Amino acid sequence: MAEVIAVWDQVHAERVLGVWRDWAAAAPETVTTSFRLMNFPPLPDLPDFLRGRRVVFLDGAAQTDEALGSELLAPLRDLQPGIDTFAITGTDALVRLHMGPEDPLPVVSDSVVLASLGDDAASDLLAIAGPAAPPALLIVELRQLGGALADTYEGGGALNHLPGEFLLWAGAVAPTDEAAAAGRRDAQVVVAAMSRHGVRPAYLNFVENPTDVRQAFDPLTWRQIVGIKSAIDPTSVFVANHPIPTLYENEAPTT
Predict the structure, then answer these.
(1) Do 2 and 64 contact (CB within 8 A), yes or no?
(2) DSSP codes, 54-114
(3) C-alpha to C-alpha distance for 56 and 8, rounded to whole angstroms
(4) Rounded to an integer, what distance in angstroms lies between the CA atom of residue 88 and that of residue 75?
(5) How far is it, in rounded angstroms, from Cα 234 to Cα 218?
(6) What per-residue confidence (pLDDT) applies to 250?
(7) Is the pLDDT of residue 85 over 90?
(8) How far is Cα 20 from Cα 185, in angstroms, rounded to an integer?
(9) How far apart are CA 101 and CA 142, in angstroms?
(10) pLDDT of amino acid 255
(11) What is the share, in percent, of the chain residues with pLDDT greater than 70?
């Protein structure tokens, strides 16, 4: 297993995004990566190379050996990142690859699944979330989909594949009610600007706001889910972030 974290200043965001987008479209199914625009506040707890900076991160993992991994990543390394941590590692290291905080952190966010990321969409993303992004946003991220995630598998469950090419997620740290309101507003602005570029059904693991849960499934699958819920948990003992109604309830949009 190979993992990589590469970092550039956001002045290089347009060039990095264009190369990564085309590279991801042709990458083997054994590769998964993400592109992140990150805006770090000038906090003393942050390391010097991140404090107060706006940077671009590429991170990801591939099932490959070192030689093939180096060849695969050559187009990205040709962009000369300021930091390059490509290395062969065990699967236990993957939980820290995305550099999420070890302890709970209050965050608000919004997300959308993009059908594609053409030149217009990339320009819109950088205009709304690049170097001039609202300061409340800590991160605007594109997660690479496609590949094995897009393949349908018979018997794969209610969600047996993820349609779309990229998942866009925008998030902000929310230590106060005021910060939460500002972060949620800015995240929604980013998602609204990108939603005109062909969206796919929401991926509920990234949906933190009230939504019509039926939109995430095709009609047949939705009927099956409601039937299973009605048979197994008719009194809603199990609590979900996005509740499924039973056949005994009014099937109005759930929140």
Answers:
(1) yes
(2) EEEEEEEEES--HHHHHHHHHHHHTT--SEE--EE--GGGGGGTT---SS---EEEEEEEE
(3) 5
(4) 18
(5) 22
(6) 52
(7) no
(8) 28
(9) 19
(10) 45
(11) 96
Amino acid in position 63: Q
Out of 5-19, 54-68, 131-145, 188-202, the most confident range is: 5-19
What is the pLDDT averaged over residues 197-203? 86
**Residue for token pair 């170097």:** 131
Nearest residue to 27 via CA among 16, 38, 19: 19
Closest CA to 32 of 173, 178, 159, 142: 142
Place of tokens 């509740």: 243
Residue 105 clears pLDDT 70, i.e. is over it = yes
Closest listed residue to residue 216, CA positions, set 167, 176, 154, 148: 167
Which residue is associated with the tokens 């005109």?
A: 196
Which parts of 10-71 are beta strand (E)? 31-39, 54-62
Average pLDDT, integer, range 78-83: 93
Which amino acid would we find at residue 90? G
**In Å, how far from its chain's centre is CA 210?**
18
Q: Which CATH architecture has domain 2-206?
A: 3-Layer(aba) Sandwich (3.40)
Kindly list the domain boundaries of the chain, sorted by start residue: 2-206, 211-255
Give the whole-angstrom CA distance, residue 112 versus residue 168.
5
Residue 57, strand partner residues: 7, 36
Q: How far apart are CA 203 and CA 167, in angstroms?
A: 8
C-alpha 30: how far from chain center = 18
